[in-house]
Amino acid sequence: MVKNYGVSHEIVQKALDKIKNIPGRLEFVGNRDFKVVVDYAHTPGSLEAVYKTLKPQAKNLICVLGAAGGGRDKWKRPIFGKLAEKHCDHIILTNEDPYDENPLEIMEDIERGFSQIQNSNDKFQKILDRREAIKKALTLAKKGDIIVITGKGSETSIAVAGGKKIPWSDRDVVLELLEELGIRKQ
Known about the structure:
By secondary structure, the protein is α/β, with parallel strands linked by helices. Helices cover about 35% and strands about 15% of the residues.
């Protein structure tokens, strides 16, 4: 596309080399014995791509995920569950953007995608409060593990009932909790 505008390959490469990361897309947060990644993945294809990218690098892949409400994209919720079951060593289902839907029902829709998992603390948990879900993931992580928190990316709010928005940042919450829990840098 840039060729159409007369931009050379060298100029494009120099510009791309300056990009260190894109906020909310495979964004590594903190520097610990384990890694924490925040990603916006909100479609089955993007979620699977994130999991496939991180799984080979992780001793254990700990996945924190939810799905948006608002009555849209209900079809993808069980697919999220199926993908998480396939790729994640531990799954924490949580709230994302429920809008006017019951967030517990959204988590149940995701859970319907599990074929082999029974609700046990060994493989998955449901924690409605997103901050608590992230905190649980941080306490589970050991050296060499990767925590991946999907769905919000660099978004700055959680959409709830009545058109309200609650200020939110997965990245900032991770950094606050690492400090609060006293998890030291490498």
